[in-house]
Amino acid sequence: MEDPALLATRLKYKNKKLNKLLQKYKQRDQLQNALIQLSELANTVAELTLLYPAIHDILKQYLPSNSFYVVLQNQYTQSLELSYFIDEKDGISVPIQESHHFSEGVTGFTFRKGETVHINKQEMSRLSEEGQFKLLGTPAEHWLGVPIRQNRHIIGVMVTQSYEADLSYNEQQVELLEFISLYLGTAIERVKKRELLESEVKIRTRAVMQSNEALNKEIESRKRALERQQILFKISELATQFTDIDDVYKQVHRIIRSITFADNLYIALYDKESNWLSFPYCIDEVGDYCPRPFANGYSELVISTERSQLINRERADKLIKQQIVIRSGDDIIKPASSWMGAPLKTANGVIGLIACQAYDDAYEFTHEDLELISFISNQIASVLQTHLANQALKLSHQQLEQRVADKTKALQQSNLHLQMQIEERKKIEKQLYHDAHHDPLTGLPNRSLFLTQLEKTLLKYQRHPDYNFSVLFIDLDKFKEINDELGHQAGDQFLIWVSKAFGECIRDHDLLARLAGDEFVILLDHLSDKQQAEDVAKRIIKVMQQPFVMKGQTVYSGASIGITYSNKRYQHIDEIIRDADAAMYYAKNAGKGRYEFYHPLLTAGTTSNKVEAEQHNLSSLTTHFRSTDVIDFSNNQVQLQLLEIFGNHPILGSTSFDVLKKFTAEKNELLDLEFALLKKALILSETHHQELLFSCAAVVLESDNFTHLCHLLKQHKHNVCLLFSEEELRFASSTQLQNLEALTQMEFAVGLNDFGKDRCDLSLISKINFQYLLLSSTFSKRVLQQPCYEVQLQGVLAVTKMRHCKVIAKGPAILNFRTLLENHGLQLFFGKQVNYDKDPRGNALFDLTSESEPLSL
Fold first, then answer.
1. Which of 760, 681, 703, 769 is nearest to 726 (CA)?
2. Which of 157, 191, 808, 851 could lock 828 by a disulfide, CB 3.0 to 4.6 Å apart?
3. Which of 396-400, 668-672, 783-787, 851-855 has the lowest mean pLDDT?
């Protein structure tokens, strides 16, 4: 048998071990129960304010925790804020009154340390003296603080403390509090999410309820709007479907009866001038309303305030007491228990009212009824005003018809007389205007009307430079002789005949006017080139070559014409008239019966500078040559050149002598100039390998000059073709034509220049053997614009081919129509123009510009 003492010792050891194991299981059971309760709380508690007391109740079961509080960190301010507080000694005001209470105390120390702090009163004093934290509030005997964690981050501190020395915390209780703190952070997060979810649910539920409420209101509003719209449709139909005003009143009553109580209704109209109320419509169970002066009743209150009124017994007594409404013995004996009225407003103000009333409390009108009748009262007012106006207008028409019928007979006589006077006055005014703007003899526009139209044309040209215009200043030749020989009456008849003849020479929209005496002007607009103005001038000159027969006598006259063409330098119409007049005088001095375009040289002599006028002497001008290549289209080679001599004029600058010769004062000077220029051209041709074309005036073909011409041509190398103008040869004498033909027989080359400018006359080509024929730029342009000129070109080419004459196309526009040239067989045309001073190697040929010597005459 074993020793009893050893057995007892062994049993005692086993009992001790079993007690520890039991204590351990008990502790775990307590911990498990606490965690289960905490989990249930997290799932069931809806608010944090309910969670902390429940946790406190759990802790009370296992450890001394009469003083318990929870502190959490604010995630925005990072400060420790109190979430739950129960204390035996200190109230809730103690931690709240002190700033940073928990951050500076032992709670903040635990939060910063991040570990469980279990200290007694002595240790707390020691740590406070060391500066670890401040002592705040009543010191506890035993203090236990555990950090609250959430996702490994400390979010706060859970604290329990005891003020009794014998009530301390053992290891199991500390471990229990630590385990609870581990799950407390999760529980707090779950409860916060539940709080947030319930808050969102409440917010959304409230929003849905508000939305439903707003939707219901909108539905009701739309129903009311639809009802009002239908009422407005019915009211608008009153203006068109009913013509009798009484029917309109009945329909208004029917409409109001459909929306409110209207067994008793009346419509009153207010006349401002008489200050009376009339009642054109009244349905009332008590009696009818008769017209009355404007007083102090319900109706007058609506009209004077221009506002709808709702009156019950209480308000009626109040209005009577305030003497706003005054009743007299003539008023209705039985007052209404409920009354409402709305003003009938129009653009001209209030014209009356519409009112409904009830007796013996049969119906109590509401603000909704008042709103409806106020809504339709304006529309009803417009309809009533329209019908009342129509009624008044109808009555007015009846009265007017009678008055008109009474005065019609008298007015007919007056109107007839007045109409005759008006017609006579119109004729007089028309005649006065015509006389003021037309010549009394010829009926043509006078100077005033012409200058007005010219000014408009000039302004239009300044805005649109493409719309060119021209002015022809015409002076009749030998008009004074006609007056002297035949008398002034014959002169007047001659002017009338001339005006009609000139009118046939222009277009319908052109303007022909008589300035004074025998001076006429023509305004041509919408022109494309100067040739159109020339054509009109030629027609006038031709028609003036016809004889005029008067009193058995035949007289011949003519016309000298000066022409100005639109130019940007013209700023005033006086400048245009001045230049046209200068060109006309030049044409008259040059031989009459001709036309001349204005040129600056015509007015150069008018300057007071005599030196400038003397410099117009052509013999003193320094000269130089320019040449234009004539290219063969088939091989693109230069065949010959057109030679021109230019003079450096002090006014015009470098100008061709073909232009300057027109302003030569004397015939002898012109003849000397022609031979001097020809001599220079012949000298130049001796150093040139290609044939040269050179323009000459027909004056060198006259009998006195022809011998000198032949002598000059024989002295120099025969390498020049003399060009004569087709216009000059047309009017040349027989002697001149014979001398020209003699030149061809002596094998001197001659050519015809500017062919087809005025007419296409083939007789010259048939009679004389021209070596070259230069088409004018005008003819070339017309060939491209008008099909009839293509036929003339074919005739020219046929004759020139038979006569072995070469045709040269002139004008820059022809270069753009290569196909047309090839189709008609043209091969020669003008190309690039160059200064004729040096040969291709750079050697000076005949540098007249460098010569300071004047032209030798």
1. 760
2. 808
3. 851-855
CA distances from 841 to 255, 381, 388, 684, 845 (A): 112, 106, 108, 17, 10
Spatial CA neighbour of 846 closest among 687, 710, 728: 687
DSSP, residue by residue, 781-793: HHHHH-HHHHHHH
Q: Residue 27: is it exposed, middle or buried by C-beta count within 10 angstroms (0-12/13-18/19+)?
A: middle
Share of the chain above pLDDT 70, in %: 85
What is the reported pLDDT for 667?
Answer: 62
Q: Please report the DSSP string for 807-833 in residue order.
A: EEE-SGGGGG-HHHHHHHT--EEEEEE
Residue type, 491: G
Q: Coil, strand, or helix at residue 75? A: coil
Largest Cα separation within the chain, whole Å, is: 200
611 within 8 A of 493, measured Cβ to Cβ: no
| pLDDT score of 47 | 67
576, 567 Cβ separation under 8 angstroms: no
Question: How high is the mean pLDDT of the chain?
Answer: 81
678-701 tens-digit pLDDT? 888 888 887 777 888 998 888 888
Residue 760 CA to its chain's centroid (Å) = 55
Strand order in the sheet with 519-527: 511-516, 519-527, 468-477, 558-565, 595-597
For residue 723, what are the β-bridge partners?
695, 751
pLDDT for residue 489: 85
Structure tokens at 686: 């001796």
DSSP state of 590: T
Closest C-alpha to 808, from 799, 797, 817, 816: 797
Residue 215 has pLDDT above 90, yes or no: no
Using DSSP, state whether 349 is helix, strand or coil: strand
**Residue 172 near residue 27, CB atoms below 8 Å:** yes
Question: Is 776's pLDDT higher than 90?
Answer: no
> Where are the alpha helices (H) located in 691-776, listed in sequence order?
703-715, 726-730, 734-745, 763-767
- Report which of 634, 641, 687 is spatially closest to residue 833, judged by C-alpha positions: 641
Q: Among residues 429, 584, 592, 597, which one has the least CA distance to residue 515?
A: 584
Helical (H) or strand (E) element with 226: helix 171-241
Lowest mean pLDDT among 406-420, 506-520, 795-809: 406-420
Residue 444 dihedral angles phi and psi, to the nearest 5°: -80, 160
Of 334-338, 382-386, 783-787, which has the strongest mean pLDDT? 334-338
**Using the 8-state DSSP alphabet, how is residue 88 labeled?**
S
355 has pLDDT over 80: yes
* Helix, strand or coil, per DSSP, at residue 56: helix
Residue type at 659 in one-letter notation: V
Residue 368: exposed, middle, or buried by beta-carbon count in 10 A (0-12, 13-18, 19+)?
Answer: exposed
Do 562 and 598 form a contact (C-beta atoms < 8 A)?
A: yes
Strand bridging mode 806-809 / 828-835: parallel
Amino acid at 652: L
Supply the pLDDT for residue 844: 37
> Please, how many CA atoms are within 13 Å of residue 245, restricted to the half-sphere of its CB?
14
Q: Where do we find the tokens 């471990």?
A: 175
139 burial type by CB count under 10 A (0-12 exposed, 13-18 middle, 19+ buried): middle
Q: What is the pLDDT, as a whole number, of residue 525? A: 92
Quote the tokens at residue 321. Answer: 């007491």
Coil, helix or strand at residue 299: helix
Written as one letter, the residue type at 324 is I
CA atoms of 132 and 147, how far apart (whole Å): 17
DSSP 6-43: HHHHHHHHHHHHHHHHHHHHHHHHHHHHHHHHHHHHHH
DSSP secondary structure string, 641-708?
A: EEEEEEEEETTTEEEEHHHHGGG-S-HHHHHHHHHHHHHHHHHHHTT-SSEEEEEE-GGGGSHHHHHH
Task: Tell me if residue 458 falls in helix, strand or coil.
Answer: helix
| Three-class HEC string of 371-438 | HHHHHHHHHHHHHHHHHHHHHHHHHHHHHHHHHHHHHHHHHHHHHHHHHHHHHHHHHHHHHHHHHHHE
